[in-house]
Design brief:
This protein is an alpha/beta fold and 657 residues long. It has 2 domains: 491 residues, 3-Layer(aba) Sandwich (Rossmann fold); 123 residues, ANL, C-terminal domain (GMP Synthetase, Chain A, domain 3, 2-Layer Sandwich), CATH 3.30.300. Helix content is 31%, strand content 24%. A hairpin with an 8-residue loop joins β6 and β7. The chain is globular and about 75 Å long. It binds adenosine-5'-monophosphate-propyl ester.
């Protein structure tokens, strides 16, 4: 590869921590002129219309580009398209027909890999779309997908999209109970799952969790991919093997003509209450933003191998391990397993094996791999990588620099992408051909979008002034349209803090410099980011209180060296129960069972009393400060100020300013 070892970024001689794209990078990049920011902001609606026309194949063009009826908005109204047509059909009509669409690598290096060309993908998607139809799935029906990272997951998603069914993917490490809550809310008719998968060499019996998850839901049919061949229970008339159904499925399934505003998928995410919310994304706007952000953020070219390590159960997996790059006709890498299994260099082995050129992961993974030592990446030739990305939580400087130097060899820009399940695709980051790349600073809003940092009263803040990140109209086309079946919650959650014309992100941020680069400082609500996964403190509390020992509990996020944040729980026990390491483990296990391992509290702190206001409300502000060693502030308004002193001792509090 002639591009290897090219100096893709150069250091700013004036500013210690700024890097810029080199001339070679600018020459190669799709966008390299910073004028696009200004050009886009003059008339963002026309800007997006132009992008929509260029990037997406429409069966019929829209009649109206953008309609805003606060807080609701629509894009490309009257436009007709199908996203699976955009992701597969249009490529099989070109030279890309035989290009690798998906390179799949199993967890074990001893098992064979799988490579699906665009034509393979086309065939499988068509066939599975016909399978879904034969099971009675129609346009608008919801289909649950509960699967490991195997190519059937992209096939199932694209097949749903092809027939206009709305998929709702549930992270495979979530428990059966979590699956059930989501399937009940979504009223899904069919579930696609697998017999099992490997995680760190261990067999995970996914079908067993799925069986528990579908109890009492409207799911009538279950399609099971045979991934491992482990023993599973198949219910006659309800459960079918994927491979058996596919055998007889006809090859052609005409893509459904979808309206731009027809729902494409629902993805559940944590809000501030215990009940996850079904974030609803619609077809046209999502397709446009997924397509262009994939192309420009990662400077995606035909010869690239794009590896986004996110699980498909998260929005990052949806947009960058499926729709975005596939619509671009790119080659994506899908890896089934853990980053450090069977050896700590598993990821780097894979980068070398396939010559990965774009690598996109989360700060948690970077910190974990950094801790394992430089010798692991150094064993491998990583010089194929030209662009690095990060997502999901703020990245600390040490991790940024390690990623930059050790993984990127000092050549590669780091694209620190800020976005949310709600935004559908990235929104704030530097672009590889424009820059700058500054450790811990995400960058500028994507051209054609409009953000500000406000204080509590809604005044716009200037450089260095910390406040709340908001988005203004026209809202990016890929933004959520509503919360499934709950438009009131949509209004309350995002459009009540500053009114129905300003989208409230729940993130703290400030403007870093005169260019308008933005630095994110973390969530300002009761949502945690645990190893990049989004989790509400209320969900963990709900799970804990299902244990008979608990009277009351409060969960807050505490900082963690690798995972960024971890839940810690303060609990009071019923009479007859005594604090013990066994009980602590049992309580942690309850959370794992009810939600999944990500939510497992790092510590359980047994207390006699929780700090409360005079009206009896638990004062989380104080618990958070305790967990973070921050100043506690005023405790005089508490009903039980003495509880704070006892807690300080238990938690080992040392105040740092
Ligand atoms: O707090 C922000 C953080 O992740 C939240 C969204 O989480 P989720 O919906 O799970 O989506 C994650 C993947 C898009 C945001 O509200 N976040 C995401 N990216 C960044 C970030 N915080 C800082 N820097 C980022 N690059």
């Amino acid at each position: 590869m002639s591009e290897r070892n090219v100096q893709w970024v150069v250091k700013d001689p004036e500013r210690e921590n700024y890097y810029w794209p080199s001339e070679a990078m600018k020459k190669k990049a799709w966008v390299s002129d910073e004028k696009i920011y200004e050009e886009a902001s003059k008339d963002p609606v026309s800007w997006w219309a132009k992008l929509a026309k260029e990037g997406i194949t429409w069966f019929k063009e829209w009649d109206e580009t953008y309609r805003w009826d606060p807080p609701f908005y629509q894009w490309f109204i009257g436009g007709k398209l199908n996203i699976s047509y955009n992701a597969v059909d249009r490529h099989v009509k070109t030279w890309r027909r035989n290009k690798a669409a998906i390179i799949w690598e199993p967890e074990s290096p001893d098992e064979p890999n799988r490579i699906l060309t665009y034509y393979d993908l086309y065939r499988e998607v068509n066939k599975f779309a016909n399978v879904l139809k034969s099971l009675g799935v129609k346009k608008g029906d919801r289909v649950g997908i509960y699967m490991p990272m195997i190519p059937e997951v992209q096939i199932a998603m694209l097949a749903c999209a092809r027939i206009g069914a709305i998929h709702s993917v549930v992270f495979s490490a979530f428990s059966g109970k979590s699956l059930r809550d989501r399937m009940l809310d979504a009223e899904a008719k069919v579930l696609v799952t697998a017999d099992g998968y490997y995680r760190r060499g261990k067999i995970i019996n996914l079908k067993k969790n799925a069986d528990e998850g579908i109890k009492g839901t409207p799911i009538e049919k279950v399609v099971v991919v045979k991934r491992l061949g482990n023993e599973v229970n198949m219910v006659e008339g309800r459960d079918y093997w994927w491979h058996e159904l596919m055998e007889d499925a006809p090859l052609n399934c005409e893509p459904e003509v979808m309206d731009s505003e027809d729902p494409l998928f629902i993805l559940y995410t944590s809000g501030t209450t215990g009940k996850p919310k079904g974030i609803e994304h619609h077809t046209g706007g999502y397709a446009v933003q997924a397509y262009w952000t994939s192309r420009w953020d990662f400077d995606l070219h035909d010869e690239d191998v794009f590896w986004c390590t996110a699980d498909i159960g998260w929005i990052t997996g949806h947009t960058y391990s499926c729709y975005g790059p596939l619509m671009n006709g790119a080659t994506i890498l899908v890896y089934e397993g853990a980053p450090d299994y069977p050896t700590p260099d598993r990821w780097w082995q894979i980068v070398e094996k396939y010559g990965v050129t774009i690598f996109y992961t989360a700060p948690t993974a970077i910190r974990m791999l950094m801790k394992l030592g430089d010798e692991w990446p150094k064993k491998h030739d990583l010089s194929s990588i030209r662009i690095l990305g990060t997502v999901g939580e703020p990245i600390n400087e040490e991790a940024w620099l390690w990623y930059f130097k050790v993984i990127g060899g000092g050549r590669c820009p780091i694209i620190d992408t800020w976005w949310q399940t709600e935004t559908g695709a990235t929104l704030i980051n530097s672009l590889p051909g424009i820059g700058p790349f500054i450790p811990t600073v995400a960058g500028r809003p994507f051209p054609g979008t409009n953000f500000a940092i406000l204080d509590e009263e809604g005044n716009k803040l200037g450089i260095g002034e910390g406040g709340y990140l908001v988005q203004m109209s026209p809202f990016a086309p890929g933004m959520l349209r509503t919360i499934y079946k709950d438009p009131e919650r949509f209004k309350k959650q995002y459009w009540s803090v500053y009114g129905e014309k300003i989208y409230y992100t729940s993130d703290g941020a400030y403007i870093y410099d005169e260019m308008g680069n933005i630095r994110l400082t973390g969530r300002v609500d009761d949502v945690m980011k645990v190893a990049g996964h989004r989790l509400s403190t209320a969900e963990v509390e709900n799970a804990l209180t299902q244990h008979p020992a608990i009277v009351e509990c409060a969960v807050v996020a505490a900082p963690h060296e690798i995972k960024g944040e971890v839940p810690i729980a303060f609990v009071t026990l019923k009479a007859g129960y005594k604090p013990s390491p066994d009980l602590e483990n049992e309580l942690k296990g309850t959370v794992t069972k009810i939600i999944g391992p990500t939510a497992r509290p790092d510590r359980i702190i047994f207390v006699d009393d929780l700090p409360k206001t005079r009206s009896g409300k638990i004062m989380r502000r104080i618990l958070k400060a305790l967990a973070r060693n921050q100043p506690i502030g005023d405790t005089t308004t508490l009903m039980n100020p003495e509880s704070v002193e006892a807690l300080k001792e238990k938690i080992g509090y040392r105040e740092v300013q």
